[in-house]
Specification:
Structural class: alpha/beta
Number of helices: 13
Mean pLDDT: 92
Order of helices and strands: HEEEHEEEHEHEEHEHEHHEEHHHHH
Helix content: 40-55%
Largest sheet: 7 strands, mixed
CATH class of the largest domain: Alpha Beta
Number of strands: 13
Shape: globular
Low-confidence stretches: 349-356
CATH topology of the largest domain: Rossmann fold
Strand order of the largest sheet: 9-8-10-11-7-12-13
Number of domains: 2
């Protein structure tokens, strides 16, 4: 397995997020969100067969989740699969170096204030690959370095390995250490946790248990696949039936700490930058949440008169102003490019007027 081991070492050296292997094809890498072929050596069926055996996949297995440790000691989460009768594998490195919260481009003071809460629900949302897990890991590591608490993570897959500092840290892998997010979360409440990280809210049972955990004195970090604050609130509440929704909204109104929504966009200097929308639940917004008036919340955030509440449009305009992204990138990333243009024209016009 010399070829596959070498490829694994390459992923670590170059910051690759995923390695794709398919018998008879060139290896492919996901780097900065893009899929690119690597090298000129085709992965053979024999090499993948040996790799399957090494990872614990049986000869007749169609799909299998396993792990692999490369020669340089790095661990990988492995998914084995078949495509058109050929063996394939996707490998994702499990990171041990967690970036400092101040290096991510997130609102540091705001997230530290959320991570310092004794209880409540913090949602970090965005598409797959938008950096949600990295943001939460950085927040949890800040807690690890600042407080003596018990942190429990329930993930699928585990993406960062934590080294305990001041905290006791328990990491549970769905499918390996627990059967599901909901079951892992339910069981974790018997393990005297202070902070719980829930890899994803996927169903009503998981959502309800997360809310109950926050209501009973735990700080819960969770992710959602949603595009912005408004979409996050609607997706979360749509998990519940009409008869349940009124009670759920009341709990959310009291227990929601805040929502951070993320996108990654190409930067002018190469690589990618975070674009953010964030909202902190305060006295004025609790009533709107309780009544399900999420549009009023969105309008409140868009006013821009409170630094704890920022829209994607405001974030994009700010990055264009500081020449960190191009206007074309901002327009492409926005669901309302006309408003981005309007705000950029308004800023430019105001700047010109001030110079006269």
């Amino acid at each position: 397995m010399e070829l596959i081991n070498g490829l694994c070492c390459t992923t670590i050296e170059h910051g690759v997020s995923d390695l794709f292997l398919l018998a008879g094809e060139l290896p492919q890498l996901r780097l900065h969100g893009e899929i690119i072929p690597y090298g000129d050596t085709i992965v053979t069926a024999q090499e993948l067969e040996s790799f399957w055996t090494h990872c614990g996949g049986g000869k007749d297995v169609l799909d299998f989740d396993g792990s692999f440790i490369s020669s340089n000691g790095n661990r990988f989460r492995v998914n084995l699969f078949r495509s058109l009768h050929k063996r394939g594998a996707v490998l994702r490195p499990i990171k041990t170096i967690i970036p400092g919260i101040e290096t991510l481009g997130v609102p540091v003071d705001l997230l530290i204030s959320w991570a310092s809460r004794p209880s409540g629900l913090v949602l970090v949302t965005g598409a797959t690959g938008s950096g949600k897990s990295t943001t939460i890991a950085s927040c949890l590591n800040w807690v690890n370095q600042s407080y003596s608490r018990h942190i429990v993570t329930i993930e699928d897959p585990i993406e960062f390995l934590f080294k305990p500092d001041k905290c006791l840290i328990t990491q549970r892998d769905v499918g390996v250490d627990t059967t599901s997010f909901a079951e892992g979360l339910r069981r974790s409440l018997r393990q005297s946790p202070d902070v719980i990280m829930l890899g994803e809210i996927r169903d009503p049972l998981t959502a309800m248990t997360a809310l109950q955990a926050s209501e009973t004195g735990h700080l819960v970090f969770a992710t959602l696949h949603s595009s912005n604050v408004l979409d996050s609130m609607e997706r979360l509440t749509r998990l519940f039936t009409g008869s349940e929704r009124e009670g759920v909204l009341q709990v959310i109104s009291q227990q929601l700490v805040g929502i951070l929504c993320q996108k990654l966009v190409p930067a002018n200097e190469g690589g990618r930058l975070l674009v953010l929308e964030h909202f902190e639940n305060q006295a004025a917004t609790r009533k709107w949440i309780m009544e399900g008036k999420f549009r009023e919340m969105a309008d409140f955030i868009a006013k821009g008169d409170n630094p704890t509440n920022v829209t994607f449009i405001q974030s994009l305009v700010g990055l264009v102003q500081t020449q960190r992204i191009s206007e074309e990138v901002a327009l492409d990333a926005s669901t309302n490019p006309h408003e981005v243009k309007r705000q950029l024209r308004g800023i430019n016009a105001n700047s010109s007027a001030g110079m006269r």
